[in-house]
Design brief:
alpha/beta, Rossmann fold, four-stranded parallel sheet, two-stranded parallel sheet, 12 helices, 48% helix, binds zinc ion
């Protein structure tokens, strides 16, 4: 049954609430991000002058996330949308288009001086050709032109560059932090000194973080690792680690038990004692890996979780991963 008076009343109430919020929190800059680690960074810089929401929930993967209508409502109230870009959160394009008044959107992959690495995930796809290539190429570190062509043919929604740059604290410090600070100042010029002070403080803490991670990882005998998905290229480049293989060759795609078994064999052949798994991994796949690998799996997390004290800030998240990498590298035989 329709009650014609109702929508009008609701609109009036909505307007009243939005007027009240404007008065009460005139200073607050509302920012919506796709992934949690970017929300952590915005929080560090914005402090009490910003309100940050990440769309992908803890445990969710930006590679497979599907937005719901309430996500549009979050964007309607936001001053900025901050995504990653580069094929990681392509779904956000559709979401932004659904915001009636439009919104200023930032894709961090466009940040100057980010020194992006070439993408890897898009070099892979599933199917027969892939299986055949895998048998041909025991060395997964190199990709030939044949693979490039296949990737292009697949036409997947992946960019040319690897979008996981937030896992390198130095790239965050030198490129992402200044860019985000600039945006916050543009939205809230009264807070300029406040933001600038926070930027300097965070800059110093990121430098210290880099030194801690470096110290943590220098003890390792070997630099080789095998990970769940290709999220670690920037982290590995920064700290001199070497990827042997990834479990999930293509983001958002679960490996078959047979593929997992092959990876475990490869890892053993390389003398690796542990496999890095992620909380976003399908528990069934994790079980298969554990079964093949015994207890030697370590959890790394590219995305963080505000409900876990070990991963609820950017620094904690990076430190968490450094510790896991160190544990994994310690188990290597050669
Ligand atoms: Zn990823």
């Amino acid at each position: 049954m329709k009650r014609p008076g109702r929508p009008l009343l609701a609109i009036a109430a909505g307007l009243w609430i939005s007027v009240l919020s404007t008065v009460a929190w005139a200073q607050s800059v509302n920012v919506v991000t796709t992934v949690i680690p970017v929300a952590y960074i915005v929080e560090e810089l914005g402090g009490t002058r910003v309100e940050v929401t990440a769309l992908v929930p803890p445990g969710g993967s930006p590679h497979t996330f599907e937005p719901v209508p309430s996500d549009v409502r979050k964007l309607v109230r936001a001053r900025y949308f901050v995504g990653i870009g580069g094929g990681l959160d392509t779904w956000s394009k559709k979401l932004l288009a659904a915001v009636p008044k439009g919104i200023e959107a930032v894709e961090l992959i466009e940040t100057p001086n980010l020194d992006l690495l070439e993408g890897e995930e898009h070099h892979h796809h599933h199917g027969e050709e892939h299986a055949a290539r895998k048998d041909e190429h025991h060395d997964h570190k190199h990709h030939d032109h044949g693979e490039e062509k296949v990737a292009e043919k697949q036409g997947e929604a992946h960019g040319e560059f690897d979008p996981h740059f937030w896992l390198d604290p130095i790239r965050v410090r030198d490129a992402v932090v200044p860019a985000v600070t600039q945006r916050l100042i543009a939205a809230d010029p009264d807070g300029k000194d406040y933001y600038e002070k926070r930027r300097q403080d965070f800059h110093q803490r990121l430098t210290a973080l880099d030194q801690r991670v470096r110290a943590e990882l220098t003890e390792a005998k070997t630099r080789k690792y095998i990970a769940f998905h290709a999220a670690w290229a920037y982290f590995a480049e920064r700290y001199g680690l070497e990827k042997v293989a990834v479990v999930q060759e293509f983001a958002g795609e679960e490996p078959t038990p047979k593929e997992v078994a092959k990876l475990v064999r490869d890892a053993r052949a390389e003398g690796l004692g542990a496999m890095l798994v992620e909380p976003q991994l399908d528990p069934r796949v994790a079980q298969t890996i554990s079964k093949e690998f015994g207890a030697r799996t370590m959890m790394v997390d590219p995305l963080g979780d505000p409900n876990d004290a070990a991963r609820d800030t950017y620094e904690d998240l990076i430190q968490f991963n450094a510790r896991a990498f160190r544990q994994a590298l310690k188990t290597n035989m050669n």
